[in-house]
Design goal:
The complex is a heterodimer of chains A (327) and B (250). Helices cover 30% and strands 28% of the residues of chain A. The longest helix of chain A is centred in the first third of the chain and has 17 residues. Chain A has 9 helices and 18 strands. Chain A has 327 residues and is an alpha/beta fold. Chain A has 2 domains: 174 residues, Rossmann fold; 124 residues, TPP-binding domain (Rossmann fold, 3-Layer(aba) Sandwich). In chain B, strand 8 and strand 9 form a beta hairpin. Chain B has 6 helices and 13 strands. Chain B has 250 residues and is of the alpha/beta class. Chain B is globular. Chain B has one domain: 3-Layer(aba) Sandwich (Rossmann fold), CATH 3.40.50. The chains are: A alpha/beta (327), B alpha/beta (250). The interface between A and B is large, with 101 and 88 residues. Strand 13 of chain A pairs antiparallel with strand 9 of chain B.
Chain lengths: 327, 250
């Protein structure tokens, strides 16, 4: 008999991050298939306020753990919070978003509890015999792995944009727990945080990505990519060639040695489509490519292509998108 | 300060990946192997810490097949002092069993710092470093983009959601490297010659069970054939219509 499902809900300010709602969606489906309860945990310095403001749906119990030590993005305190919630929830299954903190928690909670791990899942299915099957891309999406969980408890990481967000259900009751004290071993400690003025949406969570490649010819022409991203309400990505050339920061690189993304729309501008780039973006729902070479490999994965010079096509596209948005 | 860098042998990112008939592994025909790029960044950072006088020894630890000797020699040519190869004994090993085998080897090496890439580019799990930190009860800091010596340990910068976080990490600790931390050097001819004489120990892995079973390894579903909307700026109105009516993003 399986225990319950516990979903880790990552907070942002007074609310929850988008992957939290996808976690609830994935968790609700898994709990229903196993015939067990769905629980959630919110661990933050303002966890009670976040729980009251967001009232997560479809959950039997929201476990609330509030402590000043949870202000950091280091895993230590969060790991203790999740362990506490897992014990209270009677959890056999723990779901985490594949964000920076979520990845660290997936591994440290599993290590601390002796649990199994499957990271970056894109699907979770329960087979007839009750086996929980986890599908996850490997080699940045060049292959898919199907794993069956063979240990209890078991921790699963969820790729952003791969699971439907929770949209229905009743809000559950709230249970408050204390954060257990840290062990004796010295732990990492934040000394300073340098925050930018505006926090950009992380590429892996973005709904729309506009990425540029060598076809843009120089760093200053990246303005075209930025303008198109702004017009579409998306964020900017880059090919490895562009990052290696120093035109764009490492954090924007899409591909096997950068970020693996699955947005609703991926627009590739002047990107030829090296195999390691295609690996990182070919699970996007819709791919649009603009490239002057009709033989470029990017057109093999694109749903819609325009063969043409980026310097001719992008200005026209920016203008037309802006006009369509304001219409 | 003794640093152990965990380095995995993986197919190069330019390699075509074809699942093999056994449903557990990939067809290795024509596949070039390399040190996983993020592990190589961790190695470079460790060697730089030694050159800066912060570290006294850099050992590279690999769990992999006998052929990984080539990657370990390369790591020593880049500046690692010695290497330990834990010989892989199975076609599929999950993060739980990997961390168990590495933890057992690390206990024998008693490092001050364990440095890994934030993920290996074959399995993409990004879980082994965190599992190791929890299993060994070491301090842990991930996604490190800067590292320097500090009182009682190291001071690192983490790249977290667009912020830069400065963190003091006491030893013993596990760190993971993100791009931007260091640019891996090319091994010099002298380095390559010296590496041939550096110690490389082989050992059998400690017993460790997988927590998951691999039931299938398949190619990703093929994307349905797309279409060329048109050529040049003339195709823009039709593309915008598609984005509005078919994709629904406008």
């Amino acid at each position: 008999m399986s225990g319950n499902v516990l979903v880790y809900l990552e907070t942002e300010g007074e609310g929850l991050r988008k992957p939290a709602f996808e976690g609830l969606g994935a968790g609700a489906a898994l709990a229903a298939a196993l015939g067990v309860e769905l629980h959630a945990v919110i661990a933050a310095p303002n966890a009670s306020a976040v729980a009251a403001a967001t009232r997560p749906l479809g959950v039997t119990v929201v476990h609330v753990i509030e402590h000043a030590d949870l202000a950091t993005s280091l895993a230590g305190a969060h790991c203790r919070a999740v362990k506490t919630a897992a014990a209270a929830a009677g959890a056999s299954w723990m779901l985490f978003p594949a964000t920076i903190l979520g990845r660290d928690l997936l591994a440290t909670v599993a290590g601390a509890m002796g649990a199994g791990v499957a990271a970056d899942a894109t699907a979770i299915d329960v087979a007839d015999g009750g086996d929980v099957q986890i599908t996850r891309p490997v080699y940045a999406g060049k292959a898919l792995q199907v794993l069956v969980a063979r240990r209890s408890p078991f921790c699963i990481g969820l790729r952003p944009n791969a699971f439907p967000a929770m949209a229905a259900g009743e809000p559950g009751r709230t249970e408050t727990h204390d954060l257990p004290a840290a062990g004796d071993a010295p732990a990492a400690r934040v000394e300073e945080v340098k925050a930018p003025e505006t926090r950009e949406v992380d590429l892996t969570e973005a709904e729309i990505i506009v990425a540029g490649g060598r076809g843009l010819k120089a760093a200053e022409h990246y303005e075209l990519v930025e303008k198109l991203a702004a017009a579409l309400g998306g964020v900017v990505g880059a090919s490895r060639a562009v990052v290696d050339a120093g035109w764009r920061p490492h954090s924007e690189q899409v591909g096997q040695t950068g970020k693996t993304v699955s947005p609703r729309l991926y627009v590739a501008c002047g990107i030829s489509g090296a195999i390691q780039h295609l690996a990182g973006m070919s699970s996007s729902k819709c791919i649009v490519a603009v490239n002057k070479d009709p033989e470029a490999p990017i057109f093999k994965v694109a749903d819609y292509g325009i063969v043409g010079d980026v310097f001719e096509v992008l200005p026209a596209l920016i203008e037309a998108v802006e006009a369509a948005k304001s219409a | 300060m003794k640093i152990v860098v965990c380095a995995k042998r993986v197919p190069d990112s330019a390699a075509k990946i074809r699942p093999a008939a056994d449903g557990q592994s990939i067809d290795t025909q024509g596949v070039e192997n390399v040190i996983s790029p993020y592990d190589e960044i961790a190695l470079e950072a460790a060697v730089q810490l030694k050159e800066a006088g912060v570290a006294s020894q850099v050992t590279v630890l690999c769990l992999g097949p006998k052929e990984s000797t080539k990657e370990l020699r390369k790591a020593m040519a880049m500046g690692a002092d010695d290497a330990v190869l834990v010989l892989e004994d199975r076609p599929f090993r999950d993060p739980t069993a990997t961390a168990e085998a590495l933890a057992a080897a690390l206990e024998g090496l008693s490092p001050d710092v364990v440095f890994c890439g934030w993920k290996a580019i074959d399995d993409d799990s990004s879980a082994v470093a965190g599992l190791l930190a929890a299993r060994l009860d070491y301090a842990y800091a991930s996604f490190v983009v800067k590292v320097e010596g500090a009182d009682g340990g190291l001071r690192v910068s983490r790249e977290v959601e667009g912020c830069e976080e400065i963190v003091h990490v006491p030893t013993p600790c596990v760190l993971t490297a993100q791009r931007g931390l260091a640019e891996p050097r090319f091994a010099s001819l002298k380095g390559i010659m010296q590496a041939k004489r550096k110690p490389l120990a082989e050992q059998a892995p400690a017993a460790a069970e997988n927590a998951s079973e691999l039931v299938a390894l398949t190619p990703p579903p093929a994307r349905p054939a797309g279409r060329i909307v048109g050529e040049g700026a003339a195709a823009v109105p039709e593309l915008v219509r598609i984005l509005r009516d078919d994709v629904g993003v406008l």
